[in-house]
Design goal:
By secondary structure, the chain is of the alpha/beta class. The chain has a single domain, classed as L-arginine/glycine Amidinotransferase, Chain A. It contains eight helices and twelve strands. The longest helix has 17 residues. The relative contact order is 0.16. This is Amidinotransferase. It comes from Winogradskya consettensis.
Length: about 260
């Protein structure tokens, strides 16, 4: 995680960003700290990297890389405002956890567009494209990480990253909002995950799919109450955290958390 010490909305690179309303930086930092404490209270170790004043979106740590079994596929951001974040995340992976970091040539935005299910078909990556990550990055990820990659096309600009439209609930089960995907991608998802938890547009617009799950607890923002009840009905325990200020930048719980897979 990276604290929102310099978080602002001074430019708009997704439909959720409104530059006309100032960010309450104190509230953003307080909400972020509550999420961090929630994760540690649930027994998870949290590493915190330093925020950089020239990189206001660094709080969305999930976008910096994607790791599987100690190998890291480094991000290459689409927009120039975020390009510098990739190097900061690479330094963390190489110096703090001593993992192997590999950089591809294609634009990709880390866990924003990649999800991993270790027990599905022996370990499978779901990968989004359409707005940020290039389709060619899916092949790079497969070669670098040694796991099969299923490409999914996003078609609604409101859900510009995979992690706004789909989430892994445990090692083999997912939840997703079908209308965020092309019809062909929906068919693939229906075939692979017939028992998925299906979200509606209200759930997705509340960023209810931008969640973090440890297989039992599903951490999601307070606005996504209906989504919380859906995962509860499938045997998971929802844990709600207020992240309204950080949502103004186009992200919620998942965007703020990079999951480490050693």
């Amino acid at each position: 995680m990276c604290p929102p010490e310099h978080f602002t909305v001074d430019y708009a690179i997704n439909p959720w960003m409104d530059t006309s309303v100032p960010v309450d930086s104190g509230l953003a930092l307080k909400q972020w700290a509550i999420l961090r404490d929630t994760l540690t209270d649930l027994g998870h170790a949290v590493h915190v990297i330093d925020a950089k004043p020239e990189l206001p979106d660094m709080v969305y740590a999930a976008n910096g890389a994607f790791s599987v079994d100690g190998t890291v596929y480094g991000a290459r951001f689409r927009y120039p405002q975020r390009v510098g974040e990739a190097a900061e995340h690479r330094k963390f992976y190489e110096s703090t956890v001593n993992w192997t970091t590999k950089q591809g040539d294609s634009v990709n935005e880390g866990e924003g567009d990649f999800a991993y299910l270790p027990a599905a078909y022996g370990g499978m990556i779901l990968a989004g494209h359409g707005f940020r990550t290039e389709p060619a990055a899916h092949l790079e990820a497969q070669e670098i990480l040694g796991r099969p990659v299923i490409s999914l096309q996003l078609v609604d600009p409101a859900f510009y990253h995979l992690d706004t439209a789909l989430a892994a609930l445990d090692d083999r089960h997912i939840t997703y909002y079908p209308e965020a995907f092309s019809e062909a991608s929906r068919r693939v998802l229906r075939q692979l995950f017939p028992d998925a938890v299906i979200a509606d547009r209200g759930d997705a617009e509340a960023f209810g799919l931008n969640l973090v799950s440890d297989g039992r607890h599903v951490i999601l923002n307070t606005e996504a109450r209906a989504m919380g009840e859906k995962v509860r009905a499938h045997g998971y325990q929802p844990v709600h955290v207020e992240l309204g200020e950080l949502k103004r930048g186009g992200g919620s719980v998942k965007c703020v958390v990079a999951e480490l897979r050693g």
